[in-house]
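Thread: Modeling a multi-component assembly for a lab meeting

Hi all, long-time lurker, first post. My supervisor asked me to bring a structural picture of a complex we are working on to next week's group meeting, and I have zero experience with this. I have the sequence lines for every component (433 residues in total). Could someone generate the structure of the whole assembly? Inputs are pasted exactly as I received them:
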Amino acid sequence: MRSLIAMLVAAAALGGCRGEPSKLPPVHLNPNMDTQDKYKAYGASHLFQDGRTMREPPANTVQFGLSKESDEIYRGQDEFGNFISKFPVTLDAKLMKRGQERYDIFCAPCHDKSGGGKGMVAQRPGLVPPPSFVDSTDVNGRRIINMPVGEIFNTITNGKNTMPAYRTQIPTDDRWAIIAYLRALQRGQNARLSDVPADQQGSLK
Amino acid sequence: MSNENPGHDGKKPLFVFPEFHNRIPLMLAPVLALAPIGLIGAIWYYFSPSFTDVGYQPDQPVPYSHKLHAGDLGIDCRYCHVGVEKGPHAGVPPTQTCMNCHASVKKDSPLLTPVRESWTSGESMQWVRIHKSPDYVYFDHSAHVRATIGCEACHGRIDQAVVVKQEQPLSMSWCLECHKAPENYLRPRGTATVMGYKPEGGDQLAQGTKLKKENNINPPIHCSGCHR
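Re: Modeling a multi-component assembly
Sure thing. I ran the full set together rather than chain by chain. Output:
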């Protein structure tokens, strides 16, 4: 009996316990059809030269649903190539909320949640300090407050100086939502008494 | 067969089985009776993904730390895993995403050499895949993020992980445990990527039951839901 227990203990020790960290790839004792011979997203491929399963769209083709016929929406420019100052999309509360969420994901790491340019990444060494979007006492802040929305769109899409391009990470609609929210941040932090509805101004005086 | 067995001719036998051998079958009986139970126990314990898969923590080509990026720097999961709300795959970020910052932050760090090489050569980074459900299972991140199950429920506290490892078995019983009672995990919309989330009022079950009804959450428990 004692040797039986010893054998069980030895087997358990050899096998290890559930959930122990291991660097070795999982062995499936019954492989079933767990891993089938087919190409899947993000996988490696021996067929294509670049070794990737996922293909880039061929040159000079337009993905379905992404025809960029509107210069205003897709480039932030009017027909003469000037940056537009009016939003080419309808502004509503839904767009604003979306913009806030996307801004917090994609811009706040560097530009911080209020647009002051003191994000967590900017607080570490390395990055050129991003300008404040909202500080009207600063020359860059004033410039960005007065910047046409089309130019901000262009900055997000293609980057500027050391500011990275977000073309691939953020779809077009979301870029406009972010700009709408950015405008709200600027208005919110540079509000004048005249921005408050007349019947409520009294309570702020 | 010739009958040449020594002992049959009256000489002293060369070998006689000791008498206790008569009791061997009796002694073996309980062991043999217990063996199937032990075997079933061993299969239950060792064949389960809880044993084979949980804890898989491979070395990655770059010592990328979620604790630093998602925890300390507070970068949202969706900054890098952009596919998670849109389709089945969360996806692992392309080199471009790392270079957004690392073109200027720590741009000479030796730890980041493979990233810079991938950037100049255009070859993909060879990240080692950790989580994998079998190919006959249909899993879709976007459905779960839309219903608002936290990443934490399935991947653990990634924001505290210096190296990612598989926390949950991803087995069928594990999927079903939640699909039968999603109220234990449901959160309000927009909080899927929050780590260390505490339900309002501290009562997950009350909040989850309410959300389940409001948002009409009804995860599939029929076979073709996941095996399609």
